[in-house]
Amino acid sequence: MKSAYELAMERLNKTAPTVKMTDQKKKELAEIDSVYAAKLAERELFVKDELRKAAEKGDGEAFSQIQKQIISDRKSLTAEREEKKEKIRAK
To answer: Is the pLDDT of residue 73 over 80?
Structure first.
């Protein structure tokens, strides 16, 4: 007799079978993660410097604007990274 977990896993595999990743795809995905982690780190370093300058000047408007910009940058870089990873997974 199968457990509820085993039955659920069988149904899941019927509707969305697991995809085996080749070593090449794993390598490409890791490379994309690495590249985008570097891009994000570079951008955050630049923005943190700008945040520091705005804080020293006491410019609250610029400070909040820069914070919004880094959030936007993170979202766009994450979306771009995931799009590239999906292309690789779809191959």
So the answer is: yes
Please determine, for residue 17, whether its predicted confidence score (pLDDT) is greater than 80. Answer: no
Please, are residues 81 and 37 in contact by the beta-carbon 8 Å criterion? no
67 and 52 in contact (C-beta within 8 Å)?
no
Q: Please say whether the beta carbons of 66 and 50 come within 8 A.
A: yes
Phi-psi sector, 19: left (phi>0), alpha (psi -120 to 50), beta: beta
| pLDDT above 80 for 45 | yes
DSSP assigned state of 21: P
Q: Residue with structure tokens 């690789």?
A: 88
Among 25, 66, 29, 30, smallest CA distance to 45 is for 66
Single pTM value for the model:
0.70
Q: In terms of DSSP H, where are the helices of the chain? A: 4-15, 23-57, 60-90
For residue 19, pLDDT beyond 80 = no
